[in-house]
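Morning. Coffee machine broken again, so started the prediction first thing and wrote up yesterday's gels while waiting. Chain of 482 residues, entered below exactly as on the submission form.
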Amino acid sequence: MNATILLITFLAYTALLFLIAWVTSRKSDNQSFFTGNRKSNWFLVAYGMIGASLSGVSFMSVPGNVYNENFYYLPMLLGFIVGYGVIAFVLLPLYFKMNLTSIYTYLDKRFGNSSYKTGASFFILSRLLGATIRTFLVVYVLYNFVFENVGIPFSIVAIVFVTIAILYTMRGGVKTIVWTDTIQTTFMIVAVVAAVIFICNELNWSFGDMFANVFGDKHSDAFNTEWSSNRHWLKQFISGAIVPIAMTGLDQAMMQKSLSCKNIGEAKKNVITSVAMMIPVNILFLTLGAILAIYVGQNPHLLQFIGTNAAGVVEADKIYPVVAFSLKTIVGIFFFIGLISAAYPTCANALTSLTTSSCIDILNMEKRDWNEKTKKLVRMLVMFLLATLFVLLILIFNDLKSDAVINMVYQIAAYTYGPLLGLFMFGILTKVTITDKAVPAVCIIVPIICFVIEKYVFSFGFSLILVCAALTFAGLLALKRK
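Came back before lunch.
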């Protein structure tokens, strides 16, 4: 596909985001950046959270993974209903009752300063790694299909992408992100629907043919019953219940937008509506994945462009882009817009939430006697430093990539969000007082133990996050003060 067309598309879409940012960031201040002045429309937040939750990882890895792993992601989606229920009826009421800007302030009030700093540090590590992996995937595609053809290095593409995310969120923060997420979610869904329509047309399928072929194909098998497999349906369901609690409910990036709603009632409606829309959208992604797998099966010459990893497994993340760019130009353009739409929220949301947590949790900005101008200067400096780290990590992942990125994201989440989940579970479910200064040691030792168990004893798959949380809970119980 013509790289010039893709470059024009990229610039046009970026210009649209800057226009939205300019409109929404007028008269903005530090509270606009951190909380959106608590005036966000709950439905816009819910709808925008779809794009923020799916990201560039889901946009390519979920459909691509169907080729290798069928519909084994579906039980995890069903578990989301449980997880988001806990967020709506347990976590959000707690956050609103305490009037939190950063959700990790809860740990300070419940346990003490060491627990507070540990929780915030684990979030920063988790979000930094997860978001950079997701952003890397998009930069990787931008480079391979657009900029490599004109001789622009991968490192420059990474710098430009992250810089754009900084510039359009620097002033408005959450207030801007709520609106840009809405636009981005729309484009992402339109792109997937367009891909389904065009590929079905290539296969000469009617709407009825699509359902018959997709759900009659082996790739639509959703329930893996092999207990030793880390994709066993029960492990997937349990993971689906736990992962949203950790990666959404205990994630400043996701909760920051919910906390920007006017009140607890609207925040609850936001979360419930979000999961109600998220599940069918993910099923749409899986359906696209099955169609892609069937299409590649009928056009095996495409495998030479998709390639395999060191283990000889087809590189799932490349299936969707290779098929999209092999069809009509319009399909490639839709894919490209959808990818950008899925990617920008990941980078922008992460930089905003990481800046918020760093300023409030680590630098204690709310407790310092700084004027508005000084706070803004510090905030911008922190965001710049985080962006620099973003770029460095993206370059590292470019050298390390060997598996479907969605698997890598959840593997990292187990070791970083697990202790965070254990901390919050212990605080909410018990009234036990613990030795606060020993908490960092527990949260560091537990992931090491979990790594050894996963590697040498038994594979828990995505549900490893629950094992990590449970061991953290047990470790904290051992710190009970007499």
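Residues 3-403 form a domain with the Sodium/glucose cotransporter fold (CATH 1.20.1730.10). Going to sketch it on the whiteboard this afternoon.
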